[in-house]
Amino acid sequence: MGLARGVAVVGAGMTRFHHKLHLDKTSRDLFVEAALEALDSVDKGMNLRDIEALYVGNFSSDAFEHQGHLGAIMADWLGVTPVPSVRIEDACASSGVAIQLGILAIASGAFDVVMVGGVEKMRNLSTEEVTDTLAMAADEIYEASVGATFPGLYASMATAHFAKYGSTWEELAAISIKNHHNGSLNPKAQFQEEIMDMARRWGARRGYSFKDEMEFLRSPLNPVVAYPLRLFDCCPTSDGAAVVILASEEVAKKFTDTPIYVRGIGQASDTMALHDREDLTTLKGTRIASRTAYRMAGIEPRDVDLAEVHDCFTIAEVLATEDLGFFPKGEGGKAAVEGRTALDGEIPVNPDGGLKAKGHPVGATGASMVYEVFKQLRGEAGRVQVDDAEVGLIHNVGASGGTVVVQIYGR
Amino acid sequence: MGLARGVAVVGAGMTRFHHKLHLDKTSRDLFVEAALEALDSVDKGMNLRDIEALYVGNFSSDAFEHQGHLGAIMADWLGVTPVPSVRIEDACASSGVAIQLGILAIASGAFDVVMVGGVEKMRNLSTEEVTDTLAMAADEIYEASVGATFPGLYASMATAHFAKYGSTWEELAAISIKNHHNGSLNPKAQFQEEIMDMARRWGARRGYSFKDEMEFLRSPLNPVVAYPLRLFDCCPTSDGAAVVILASEEVAKKFTDTPIYVRGIGQASDTMALHDREDLTTLKGTRIASRTAYRMAGIEPRDVDLAEVHDCFTIAEVLATEDLGFFPKGEGGKAAVEGRTALDGEIPVNPDGGLKAKGHPVGATGASMVYEVFKQLRGEAGRVQVDDAEVGLIHNVGASGGTVVVQIYGR
């Protein structure tokens, strides 16, 4: 696959992701907030009249807000009518796919500047309702209708991985600890707190004291959600939005001296129901999408300086770092324990805290990954800045891997 | 707007649209049925391995079937994994937009063959629930939550049009009569019956006898839904799917000697809430999208040989035939009365029966329009064949005009 012309990111913005802060807002408020921040981030200046099309990733404002047709809603609310507007839904990969389609739209010659973002307003509903709503992203006939929800589906992958590779829950815990550490340094993250600090705070309220994170994570304060996944192995539910602005290579320099170029893209689908997979310890979609993207970018996994991967559950980060080719199968968790994916490790993974600590407003997550890579490659990532970041990868997964998107960006 | 390379339709299929026939099927059954018919229609042969990406238009299988993530579901069910799959939602324009994005994807160089379709399985829910579900496509804050549903919104456009142009309900009735006539000749249509035949059948059951259609349409058997719109001014709810196969100009001839080429495309958004519109007697999105498409195709409205327009309500066909430039403002209804939009008229509109008689499974409608144009331009449209059809236009509207897509096809 080669594109007819090059595409770059010239701006990016996001709201803070949060479970409480945005309760009085709707998805349109959140999307507009992120969109205006993205516009403001275009250093040589851009205004709404420069936007030629608007792509919105969203999983289910239908269920969350009784509002469909979100492309047109956002075009209206943002004030960019009559430009073409589109809503794209691919479960938790909605905005990753939306960005993919925005890239293709520019490459086609149809547009020079496309705004692409994602939004989800999940916290209107109770946790039980959210779990049921998210289960629509699984196979309704074979999974959701018989009670399977995502914690259970990913728990199946975890036990399969443990059985095949001898990996352990302690390895998963290391990922949670790392991502909370990174989140503690990210002003946009939902949880800006080290796990040890939460352990002290939660423990004090309930009469516990913990000598270290692992004691806390093994305690009743971190209950099992679906064995072997405990509470701190699961990302939270969140409200939030993230928006990026894409431009053709021809016009990108008009807007910024430091565009971040799209180097490679890949996308794959897979069977929805887990029972149809040959192997539960890998996401085939990740392997295929990443190989496509690496080939287009002309690089190898070792050339990636930082990666934003889809850690909806800690086991998902293990699978991702293996399937993306950063580590051999079975060694993703061990790599986290050894600090190889830490901010100062050989391949920093989820420097922004990942879904675990940054939060996961599902439709916004892919765009928030590109936001982070954009900041990193421009050296504007603040306290989570990775040294000499020149190549960044994003990996956004829909459901249990039915959709996977990989994009590689470079300076 | 110019595309980096040309695109053609090489195959098309659709299920019959219906309110009862598909009650025991799910949207995946319907989509696969249409997709396999589309494959079979490729006269020089094509199989699933030729499909490089799958785009699915769907309004809300979330609400209708508790099933999101429809791109991956359809890729799985059809057996085309691991190709990239995407679900696109833009209310009733979902598959029109999906085809637009499929065209851009091929033009970008990313793919040579893309399958694009749409599906909706609406009849699982009661009429009241369907009306509420469709209302999600309007503005939830200013319209749906205060009781506005689509019959009411389009009724407002009708009364505004009557007031401004002196148009009449009798003109709307002429559209319904024409579209039912066309539907009576189309084996894929939901209602394959002339209105006069329905009048006899319904009348006999209830002790009425009618001398002509107009007496029936003015009777209590055609009740007012939202003044001035009566039952026969409103399209039905339906189950169904339609699928087309797009190919780059370079490879199209490998699959068929008679590809149907994309000559022009246009898309526009508009304010969602009607209270924000300057004028209720026009859809600005139709004017903008069609002017874009005409310019790209290098043609004028008078060059169009047949048009598939979005007649969710009869008044919508009046607005469409005016806003597309076929007739001056205020004369769309009169043109229907005079037979100028009939199968043998100067510009046949909705030869397949339109949404009114063919049915309107909302996510499938745009693709069904392209299906019809494909058949017409190849001379394969059976009893609704328009003589010497060389240029066909489709016009697909989301909600009350928040999204409008126009595509022009030629031999």
Walk me through what this model shows.
Two copies of one chain form a homodimer. By secondary structure, chain A is of the alpha/beta class. Chain A has a domain at 7-126 and 237-255: Thiolase/Chalcone synthase (Peroxisomal Thiolase, Chain A, domain 1, 3-Layer(aba) Sandwich). Helix content of chain A is 37%, strand content 17%. Chain A has 15 helices and eleven strands. Chain A has helices at 27-40, 61-65, 70-78, 94-107, 127-134, 150-165, 169-183, 195-206, 213-217, 249-255, 284-297, 314-323, 332-337, 354-358, 365-377, and strands at residues 7-14, 53-57, 85-89, 113-121, 224-226, 229-230, 239-248, 260-269, 306-308, 391-398, 403-410. In chain A, strands 3-2-4-7-1-8-11-10-9 form a nine-stranded mixed sheet, sandwiched between helices. A two-stranded antiparallel ribbon of chain A has the order 5-6. Chains A and B meet through helix 2, helix 3, strand 3, helix 4 and strand 8 of A and helix 2, helix 3, strand 3, helix 4 and strand 8 of B. Strand 3 (85-89) of chain A pairs antiparallel with strand 3 (85-89) of chain B, so a sheet runs across the interface.
